[in-house]
Amino acid sequence: MQTIIKLAPRTLVPALSRCSKHTLPDLPYDYNALEPIISGEIMKLHHQKHHATYVNNLNVAEEKYNDAKAKNDLNTMIHLQPAIRFNGGGHLNHSIFWQVLCPKEGGNQPSGALADQIKKDFGSFDKMVTQLSNASVGVQGSGWGWLGFNKQEQRLQVATCSNQDPLQATTGLLPIFGIDVWEHAYYLQYKNVRADYVKAIFQIANWKKADELFQKAK
Amino acid sequence: MMISAAIVFLITFAGVYSQTTLTLPPLPYAYNALEPVLSEKLMHLHHDKHFFAYTNKTNMVLRLLCNETKDGDKLKEIGNLPIEIILTRLGELPETYALSLRHNGGGYINHKLFFSLLKAPTATAAENKPTGVFLEALEKSFGSFDKFRELFSAASVNLFGSGWVWLYIDARTKTLVLNFTANQDNPIMFDKNHFVIMGIDLWEHAYYPVYENRRAEYVENFWRLVNWPVVSQRYIESQTKRSDL
Fold first, then answer.
1. A36-218: which CATH number, 3.55.40.20, 1.25.40.10, 3.40.50.300, 3.30.300.30?
2. How many helices and strands (H and E) does chain B possess?
3. For A45-58, what is each residue's pLDDT tens digit?
4. What tens digit of pLDDT does each residue of B107-160 get?
5. Nearest C-alpha in A relative to B204
6. ipTM score assigned to the predicted complex
7. How close B139 comes to chain A (CA, Å)?
8. Domains, chain B, ranges and CATH?
9. Which of A9, B58, B194, B231 allows an S-S link to B154, with CB 3.0 to 4.6 Å?
10. What dihedral angle (degrees, nearest 10) is formed by the CA atoms of A141, A144, A145, A149?
């Protein structure tokens, strides 16, 4: 438990930054394209509110950071790091997430190099799904479940991160496929039954994109 | 008739004291009593699904703990203590028990407290204020009630991820302190003598059906719900050094 030493009232209302570096990426599909697995209502909120807020707050934090750096104000730089980690991570994570989802396709499984690697590292696709699902459902509080690639050991691994900690910065693993298990990702539709959401999300996994990420990671 | 009633009473009484079965406390008000700040639908979900799940899972873990033969009777003994005591002794438990009880047992006591601190909303936040000894204590620690509310709200809005913001009596300094915990952690897990006065649930499930991502709006309206007489009573109890939590 950390002590709140000083709290000036701060709002998270995004300020318009003159030199915005980060922008909210468009979804590669319509808001309702992932129905019935993820509702259009959730997709809209998730993209236009949650992800957009991460982007805005990241820009604000970075601008403040750059100002502090210019003045050699190390205290302020350090003070801003949690906000950069949180909002930057949120931006990174969600940018990947939209890419690794796609409208539902029948018989959705990876093929090619990724499929072979999954078989090699987990025994079978189903075993990987079980491991990733259990890990994702088991995240306490807010966080993400990931299938990541360990470049040093040249193998795939399941990992989880809390809050918006980005996979690569936190674990060194390169993201291949991820599941957002913050409540905002599923609550309006699945309520408290995270397990149903995690089970269903494999129906909209974009394994082609995951394979691309895997090829690049290798 | 009288004898069987007595037996039922004794079983119930003994059941309460063995503390291996937590019960889900009903809300002290109707599900729609907190409208429009927290909807009936939200209260049903929060109480009947989330709080219910924490209760069940804690009971499951406690049942296992009470049958645990490792370490002789030590783990069984701990398992038979009240949950509020067990949560101050998580360090004595094997990791799997500690983690599960921290999350589910924490969820149980946090929600038990939280729901007890709410009441039908006032029309505005400004008109809902504490009085008496507790108000004086807040003024002493924070300068003014408004300042306390400002700090508590800022902490709540700025918390990253899932967790709680708490007002509690610090075990060492004996003063009123504001702090936060992640996930379902409770201040007593860090020091058994911290005395929690009030808290706010900042998990998304606590506000999403009504406020979606607008946590600041939820926090603003939370002040209309705080049952100050109940909160004040907790403060008064803390000063008389009673340890009922």
1. 3.55.40.20
2. 12, 3
3. 999 999 999 999 99
4. 999 999 999 999 999 999 999 999 999 999 999 999 999 999 999 999 999 999
5. A183
6. 0.88
7. 17
8. 40-117 (1.10.287.990), 132-244 (3.55.40.20)
9. A9
10. -140
